[in-house]
Amino acid sequence: MKGWCFATLGELNLWRGELQRARRRRSSALQVVFHVGLFAILTCFTAGAVESQFLTIDLPSALRLAGARNIDIQLARGKVAEAYAAEESAIERFFPWVAPGVTYRRHDNLIQNTEGSIEEVHKQSYAPGSIIAAQTDIGDAIFKSLEAHQLTKAARHGVDAQQQETILAAARSYFDLAAAHEAVGVAREALRASTDYAAEIERAVNAGIAFKGDALRVKVQQQRDEIALRRAEENVRLASARLVQILHLDPIIELMPRDPSVVPFSIVSPKEPLGDLVSQALAMRPETQQSAAFLSAAQQAKNGAIYGPLIPSVGGQAFFGKLGGGKDSETGHFGGSEDYVALLNWRVGPGGLFDFGNIHGRQARRRGAALTADKVIDQVANEVITSQTRVQSLADQIATAKQSLSDAEEALRLGQERKEFGVGVVLETIQAQQELSRVRNDYLNIVTDYNKTQYALLRALGRLSAPDDRSPPEAGR
């Protein structure tokens, strides 16, 4: 037996609040589960085993959930953490390392003394203490840290870009879901009309005042309307599944729009100058900022290959501890001991000066990053132009579709009046009903595309973000 759980985002927030309050009271895990479970049972009525949970949702809630729960955004944030860790590692190259420990040395039999003679010697020594050592390729460390910093910036812009892309996908899926629900209403109305008309024709045929072929025509149309309704219901479930995937919700949840009516939104004016829109997009899009950061990172890598080896490597080592030992197995003569070593050197060859292969590779990478940045600029400008053009076109189509919808409704009304007076033909009425359904679906699709394109234009301008708790954008009729 199927069961349904109807809940809203507000009710889910109440459940979450109950869970947090139970935790603050430091309840045991079993008490927490029982408390929140009881609250959920009182809120959610089920009939038998729960197979589907119906959740009502509105557009602002969908956009907020997309910005908070989407897996792609979480993966992008993971890349930021990796880039930041790489930047930390680059900075740590400047710092020395400390190695506390004990050194023990022993020698037996022959050894050469400082005068060159070979002697038989038995000796040992031990030196507990700490070694502080630093070996820094200053040039490499400087440019590697600068490059890592730019890569971290690029990763952060990548998160912003992924978040906007996810929010756009959520908005599109929500509009598809709302349109699918309204299409079900259109299909049901068409099926109701054809069913009622089929019953009337059947009675007329039985009374001998109508043609059997007319009844069959209406029956065929009724069956087509049944198929159309089933397809519309299928589209609702598929649209819900797509939105659930984007929002990273429980797969068994079926989303329903809180207000399924589809009306045109007015978010970005299609009459703004195209040049201003392109300039805004180039300044605000995270993709352009990300490509600029990649270009800067490639520039720092190239500078590191050319100028880094000119800066000498600086190293030093100091030992602080004790030294003891002596001939044979003596353990005396134990006292303080310090050793100091200072290094200053340049590296010539691979990885250092005159490493032309590394230099040429970094230069090629920098040229590739510059070309990629130019490609991103062209793509952003194209997205703005395409979105604005579609918004303007769809705005004009909405006006025409409204008029077509009004004309189709009037045509059906006139056809039904002719039928009532016995003047009309059955086929004409059926065609008028079909035309009205087509026009309604056309209007629905145009308005849905218009709303989706509005958000696409907002995304192209780099101004798309998850809404706050303020009211959603006004919808324009």
Describe this entry's structure for a reader:
- The chain has 477 residues and is an alpha/beta fold.
- The protein has two domains: 1-50, no CATH class; 58-96 and 146-252 and 259-311 and 348-477, Outer membrane efflux proteins (OEP) (Up-down Bundle), CATH 1.20.1600.
- 63% of the residues lie in helices and 16% in strands.
- It is built from ten helices and seven strands.
- The protein has helices at 9-24, 29-43, 59-69, 71-92, 138-206, 212-247, 274-284, 286-307, 356-420, 426-460; strands spanning 4-8, 52-57, 97-112, 118-137, 253-257, 313-327, 335-345.
- The strands form two sheets. The chain has a four-stranded antiparallel beta sheet with strand order 3-4-6-7.
- A hairpin with a 5-residue loop joins strand 3 and strand 4.
- The longest helix is centred in the middle third of the chain and has 69 residues, at 138-206.
- Mean pLDDT is 79; it is low at 1-15, 29-50 and 469-477.
Cα radius of gyration in angstroms: 38 Å
Quaternary structure type: single chain
* CATH architecture classification name of the largest domain: Up-down Bundle
> Which percent range describes the beta-strand content?
15-25%
Q: How far apart are the first and last residues' alpha carbons, in Å?
A: 43 Å
In the CATH hierarchy, the third-tier topology of the largest domain is known as: Outer membrane efflux proteins (OEP)
Mean of residue pLDDT values: 79
Derived from helix and strand composition plus strand pairing, the structural class reads alpha/beta
Q: List low-pLDDT spans.
A: 1-15, 29-50, 469-477
User: What is the CATH class name of the largest domain?
Assistant: Mainly Alpha
Using the alpha-carbon principal axes, give the shape. Answer: elongated
Instruction: Report the sheet with the most strands, covering strand number, pairing sense and barrel closure.
Output: 4 strands, antiparallel
